[in-house]
Amino acid sequence: MAERDSLKATSASSGVAYGPVHLGELPDAALSSRPQSASGYQALMDAIETSVDELEALAGRSDAESRDIIDFQIEVLRDPTIAETAEARMNAGENIVFAWAGTLDDYIGELETADEEQVRARAVDILDIKNRVLCALTGTPIADFPAGSIFVGRDMEPSRFLAHDWSGGGGIALFNGSAIGHVALLARAKSIPMVVNAGRFAVSEGDYIRVDADSGAVAVHADGARVESASPQSISTFTHASPCDNGEVRTADGTRILLSINVNDPAELDSVEPVTTAGIGLMRSEFAVSSVADAASEEKQIVIYRRLLKWAAGKPVIVRMLDIGGDKPLAGLGVPPAGPTTDLRGIRLLLAHPEIARVQARALLRAAVHGDLRVMLPMVTFPSEINEMRSIFHEEAVRLATRGIPHPIPAIGMMVEVPAAAVMLDTFETADFFSFGTNDLTQHLAASSRDGANSTVVHRATIPALFRFLEGAMRLAAKGGKPVSICGDIAGDPQWLAGLLAIGLRHFSVAPVQLPAIRSAIVGLRADGTKAAGE
Amino acid sequence: MSSELRIETTEATRLHVSCQTEVEVKHVVGLHARPAVTFTRLAKSFPCSIEVAVNGSDVWLNGKSIIKIMSARIRKGSVLRIRADGILAEEAIKALKELVERNFDEDKNHGRTG
In A138-189, where does DSSP find H-type helix? Predict the structure, then answer.
């Protein structure tokens, strides 16, 4: 190896990072083994035993009254009919984690409707053990790496990105990877410097490396001389530059444009002032609800959605239901085949596995009392899919009503990201609103996956076709007079703003880091996308 | 309502039998969590199957399942039919009936009824 190898790479998220290497090899084995362990019946039995052991240890240091509760919980965990019911649900095709959660949810629902207060009070004890076992089922979390490290590997899984503490800076250099893949999207949202397609290069754990994602280069045996240029950057500075206009910006000729934000993880909101936005235009729930155990836990999801609503303080929060399947696997859900070409993804997967959709629907219904929550459905292709999901919401609302739980029914809209839906938008009468997801739309228009080696080039070349396509879809959407927004990556890139204004888009949802750039671009343009005089 | 212990021996072997009994619940709040734990734990200590039917119902519930016992809403004054089948069935029925008659040992263990 030369002293200071400089490698050419593709920038996926701008910035410069310098730090010790963390070698992130292992994805294949880790990915294939985890779903297996979480889907086996034995895994459930093991998780129950673990939970019983924990409770017994807890009982040893508790007073008599607490011991009564713990004894009750242990007895429920050892209830033979629970294991039988869960097994029957699993044999009927449910993932074991959902079979467990669904079985317990049914009992909790029964107890909650009891006449006797003593019996109703036990529902929360069962809820507690339901979640205790779900925690045990998640197993060993993916090992994190030291804060401030540069992750180097063939590729990186979204779950690993999300589990890592990026507050100490750091960066990502991938041998392969994709600038339009999901980790790139997450890295841009968090301003983590990232390069892809660097090719395989030799480094050792702890070697210092410099990732220059602005110029698309990696310096392998970088010395410390450039440390100062790569100190961890503040990711919160952009909020100070944003005026408190509640995301309402005027074009040069006075047309009102709304600016909302895309969120992947509720923690991203810590650095954004709500008064700088019109709300959350897209919450990608699959990044916050990232394991099958989380997807089975109504309570865990309610906490996430409440946090968003509390932050928004009355402004709209659009939560996209779990967009899983295809190239976005849910850790531990072994049912759908993995791989970018699978048909079972987005809303199709949710309808094929209603046990997943029902838990999320209940969590959304219950969280909706805390603010202006709206629901967006991923990868919708046909109007019937919206109707089916609406039925699930209504059925779950009835179930909540019998338990006396408040549950406003939210507006239900759809992502427009499947070409077949985009050309038929006027037939989607039951959708309450539309939002263009241009990342997937581009991919499907170009018949090109987002993780391929040439994907960035192909997708860029597809943009003129995308615009022509969006223009037609906008005309169809206008017929129904429904709210329309755009939340794909293209919405946050000032170079496309004029074109998007020209076809009539007035509501943009962008990564928080893009807010200042888009805001300043809007004021320099007229509503038809032409440059304002004097610019 | 009869509270006699009827024993019907259906197997030749003395160990493998089917037994049934009836007993009225006198406990003030019925079979809520703690009495249910005591009941199902005792039931599980026997190798035979144990089933319970409430107030003349012909639905037999697994007597070793706390969830089934709890959701049967067994209140004060309910009459439990308990049946056992298999090894030590006779002993199981006797022990469970006595437990119900002793108010699930609530007074002895806790001196309170809640």
Answer: 158-163, 182-189
Beta bridge partners of A525: A531
Pairing of strands B61-62, B49-54: antiparallel
CA distance A106 to A301: 18
Structure ipTM: 0.83
Of 2.30.29.30, 1.20.1250.20, 3.50.30.10, 3.30.559.70, the CATH number of A1-24+145-222 is 3.50.30.10
Question: CB of B97 within 8 A of CB of B21?
Answer: yes
Mutant choice from B67, B73, B76, B113 vs A, greatest count of A C-beta within 10 A: B67
Any CB–CB contact under 8 A between A106 and chain B? no
State which fold the A261-332+341-488 domain adopts: TIM Barrel (3.20.20)
Q: Which residue of A has its CA nearest to B70?
A: A119
CB contact under 8 A, A75 and B36: yes
Tell me how far the alpha carbon of residue A153 is from its chain's centroid: 23
Q: Quote the mean pLDDT of chain A.
A: 87
pLDDT for A479 beyond 50: yes
Coil/strand/helix, residue A321? coil
Cα end-to-end distance, chain A, whole Å = 50
Q: Which domain holds residue B40?
A: 17-105
Structure confidence at residue A29 (pLDDT): 39
Q: What is the predicted pLDDT for the residue at B20?
A: 92
* Residue B110 domain-assigned (yes or no): no
Q: Which of A485 and A239 is assigned the larger pLDDT?
A: A485
pLDDT of residue A33: 39
Torsion sign, CA atoms B100, B106, B108, B111: negative
Set of chain A residues whose Cβ sits within 8 Å of the Cβ of B33: 68-69, 72, 118-119, 122, 125
Provide the CATH number for the domain around residue B48.
3.30.1340.10
Average pLDDT for A201-224: 86
Percent helix, percent strand, percent coil in chain B, to nearest 5: 35, 25, 40
Note whether residue B9 is domain-resident.
no
Mean pLDDT (whole number) for A64-84? 90
Dist. CA A242–CA A79, nearest whole Å: 57
Per-position b or e across A120-133, b if 16+ CB within 10 A of its CB = eebbebbbbbbbbb
Q: What is the CATH number of domain A38-138?
A: 1.10.274.10
- Whether chain B has a CB inside 8 Å of the CB on A63: the answer is no
Are B34 and A75 within 8 A, CB to CB? no
Give residue A65's pLDDT band: very low, low, confident or very high (50, 70, 90): confident
pLDDT of residue A21: 93
pTM of the entire structure? 0.79
Q: Is A56 on the interface with B (CB under 8 A)?
A: no
Task: Give me the pLDDT at residue A36, please.
Answer: 43
**Residue B82 located in a structural domain:** yes
Which chain B residue's Cα is nearest to A109? B71
Total tally of structural domains belonging to chain B: 1
Q: Where along chain A do its domains lie?
A: 1-24+145-222, 38-138, 261-332+341-488
| Residues found in chain B | 114
* Enclosing H/E stretch for A173: strand A171-174
Is B4 domain-assigned? no
Chain A to chain B Cβ contacts (< 8 Å): 59
- Tell whether B10 is within 8 A of chain A (Cβ): no
Active site residues of B: 32
